[in-house]
Amino acid sequence: VGACPFFYSKSENAMNLRALVVLPSIFLAAAAAADHHEIPRAYAEVYDCQLNDGHSLSEVASFAREAFSPWVKKQGLEGNTFLWEPVAVAAPFDEADFRWVNYHPSWTAYAKGAEAWRSASAAKLREELFSLVSCKLPAFATVFVTDPSEEAPSEKMVMLGKCQFKPDSELDLEGLVAAVKNQNRDSRTDGDLLEAVWLTNVGIENEPWDFLRMTAGSGAAIGEMMDRSMGGGGRLAPNANPFNCEVDFHRSHATR
Could you tell me which residues come within 8 angstroms of residue 11 by beta carbon, excluding any fewer than 6 positions away? Predict the structure, then answer.
């Protein structure tokens, strides 16, 4: 039996955080609200999901856009939802068929959504969703925006870096954000990239990373950035970064 969005699940297995997706409107709102002493942030709620026999990701996307999204709007809930499709993902993070990801501007907004999802008004939605998918319990991450994007297409490519600090690195959050900003990947493309640092903190343990780094944009923008970043040997050129990252690729489908 699968888990539903907004903290409702019959699954007994806790999910490992496997995926990240882009959240333009939440990130822009967070950036606008933060003063110069704050780092803009949002909160991600991520589910590993398997498609039930005979069903497809396109069916799930149609459900999310045509049934779930109108219900969310009627309930007056804040946030965004994305479906994240694996493109080039290393084992063991390649097990899920896709991820369902809710982004919330605050924990209060999350709690309101969780309560609404468990209510009678969502009963038919839960039944319809469970007929399509089975998902594990969610993991949560705090998302710190280092470079917001003003573009919000229905589909984006996402680079997910599973990053570890080098042994001699001593960085606090502000230092980490500064190090990511200093790389300025957005300057390596004529497109518009979103960058963020993810700290996983609830519903996950023993993760093989210190933090997650997300870079998201159109396929053309990501490709151009990669071409301008790669060294002659097909790997990222060496630099003085205080961390190393192993990168996967994902495709993000916006649903609300």
Answer: 1, 2, 3, 134, 135, 136, 137
Bridge partners of 248, per DSSP, are 160
Angle (CA) 184 185 190, round 5°: 110
Residues facing 198 on adjacent strands? 143, 212
Where are any strands of DSSP class E within the chain?
3-4, 8-9, 41-51, 80-88, 98-104, 133-135, 139-147, 155-165, 194-202, 211-217, 243-254
The pTM for the full model equals 0.78
Tens of pLDDT along 2-34? 344 443 333 333 333 333 333 444 444 444 444
DSSP 8-state code for residue 35: -
Residue whose token pair is 């495709």 = 251
For residues 1 and 10, the answer to whether their CB atoms sit within 8 Å is yes
Per 3-state DSSP, what percentage of the chain is helix, strand, and coil (rounded to 5)? 30, 35, 35
Query: Residue 155 — φ and ψ, nearest 5°?
Result: -140, 135
